[in-house]
């Protein structure tokens, strides 16, 4: 059934901005589609129905454990057939029109929908499954262990335009995307079997982007990811104030790029990538769902300034991965703070850093640029940028 009314609260305790309308709908094969309307939208409330005839969704992928590391690898073969750099008139993320039976039936400000060929989901864990027992089982190591890749993968369309990125948005539209991240984080965190929720944006062909349409994704994983497991181990060794202490040290140091009332962006002390920026909230917030409206409002303009500054480093747009790390859903909520890690392999106007022997095989990184020098360059680039 097609719906256009404002949705209810996404999850208990989640903060919702009443200025941004949320309009749930359903695609022809049953996948969820949610429209998020800008606070200053000019769109009507009514949205078209998806009248396509679609094939059944592929079966949920399975994952296999690497016993040498304990890590899980999702085998999602259906993703091999996804669209690769289509022309503008066949953009699958643009609003539907004659000749382009895209994924979104109506024009929109921001739209979120379930990925047709996801790496995780759409199957979820059994409703009576205990999270702590499931996590403990996944952390054990064995030979030829398999499990179902339960979870959810969603696409977040930032704009109906064919080309762009988060940095090309207006402040109002950026604020709508942030609201979508917050509300989807709350909803996905409440799904059975979800242990971590990860909003991110890949930008540029050099990163492997297959669609130029301005968009990001949200992955809801059935386990705590390897990167977060390493963070939890560091917190266990240092203490629960680790992330707060890092932020306090950086706010008084030489690598700060931007600072507001609620957020600070800086180049980290031990940056791996030629361009690497971390952005943290000043108070402890485990994920987007628990940020205040004031924090989201400031982030919209500050984040735009950061991304536009990164693009001013060179004459052409810089490829990057914008990774929003959030606390696990069921663990360490008081220790792990929401954090952006923006990374780019671009080490010069015409040079990229490739992960070769030491980094790719051993995880032993060698930095190409001193973090303080890169912070100076980024501050100069950000100077004069207005959101």
UniProtKB/TrEMBL annotation:
Residues 245-334 form the Galactose-1-phosphate uridyl transferase C-terminal domain. The active site is at residue 215. It catalyses: alpha-D-galactose 1-phosphate + UDP-alpha-D-glucose = alpha-D-glucose 1-phosphate + UDP-alpha-D-galactose. SUPFAM superfamilies: HIT-like. GO terms for cellular component: cytoplasm. Residues 60-224 form the Galactose-1-phosphate uridyl transferase N-terminal domain. Its EC number is 2.7.7.12. One of its GO terms (molecular function) is UDP-glucose:hexose-1-phosphate uridylyltransferase activity. InterPro entries: GalP_UDPtransf1, GalP_UDPtransf1_His-AS, GalP_Utransf_C, GalP_Utransf_N, HIT-like_sf. The keyword Magnesium does not apply. Pathway: Carbohydrate metabolism; galactose metabolism. Its cofactor is Zn(2+). GO terms for biological process: galactose catabolic process via UDP-galactose, Leloir pathway. Keywords: Carbohydrate metabolism, Galactose metabolism, Metal-binding, Nucleotidyltransferase, Transferase, Zinc. PROSITE patterns: GAL_P_UDP_TRANSF_I (PS00117). Belongs to the galactose-1-phosphate uridylyltransferase type 1 family. This is Galactose-1-phosphate uridylyltransferase. The lineage of its organism: Bacteria, Bacillati, Actinomycetota, Actinomycetes, Micrococcales.
């Amino acid at each position: 059934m097609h719906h256009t009314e404002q949705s209810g609260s996404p999850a208990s305790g989640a903060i919702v901005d009443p200025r941004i309308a949320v309009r749930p709908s359903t695609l022809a094969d049953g996948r969820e589609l949610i429209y998020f309307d800008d606070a200053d939208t000019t769109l009507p409330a009514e949205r078209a129905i998806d009248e396509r005839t679609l094939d059944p969704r592929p079966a949920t992928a399975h994952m296999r454990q690497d016993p040498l590391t304990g890590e899980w690898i999702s085998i999602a073969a259906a993703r091999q057939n996804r669209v690769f750099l289509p022309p503008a008139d066949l953009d699958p993320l643009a609003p539907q029109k004659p000749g382009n039976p895209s994924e979104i039936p109506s024009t929109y400000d921001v739209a979120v929908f379930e990925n047709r060929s996801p790496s995780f989901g759409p199957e979820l864990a059994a409703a009576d499954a205990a999270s702590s027992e499931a996590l403990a089982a996944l952390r054990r190591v064995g030979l030829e262990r398999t499990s179902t890749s339960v979870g959810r993968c969603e696409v977040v369309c930032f704009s109906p335009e064919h080309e762009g990125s988060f940095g090309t948005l207006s402040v109002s539209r950026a604020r709508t995307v942030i609201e979508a991240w917050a509300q989807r984080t709350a909803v996905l965190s409440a799904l059975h079997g979800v242990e971590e929720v990860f909003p991110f944006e890949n930008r540029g062909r050099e990163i492997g982007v297959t669609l130029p349409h301005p968009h990001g994704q949200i992955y809801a994983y059935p386990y705590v990811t390897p990167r977060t497991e390493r963070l939890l181990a560091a917190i266990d060794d240092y203490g629960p104030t680790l992330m707060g202490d890092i932020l306090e040290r950086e706010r008084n140091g030489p690598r700060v790029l931007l600072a507001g009332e609620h957020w600070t962006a800086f180049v980290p002390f031990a940056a791996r990538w030629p361009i690497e920026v971390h952005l943290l909230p000043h108070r402890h917030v485990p994920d987007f769902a628990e940020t205040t409206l004031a924090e989201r409002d400031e982030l919209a303009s500050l984040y735009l300034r950061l991304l536009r500054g990164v693009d001013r480093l060179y004459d052409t747009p810089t490829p990057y991965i914008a990774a929003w790390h959030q606390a696990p859903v069921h663990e360490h909520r008081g220790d792990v703070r929401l954090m952006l890690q923006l990374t780019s392999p671009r080490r010069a106007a015409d040079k990229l850093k490739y992960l070769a022997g030491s980094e790719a095989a051993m995880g032993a990184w060698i930095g190409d640029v001193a973090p303080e020098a890169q912070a100076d360059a980024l501050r100069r680039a950000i100077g004069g940028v207005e959101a």
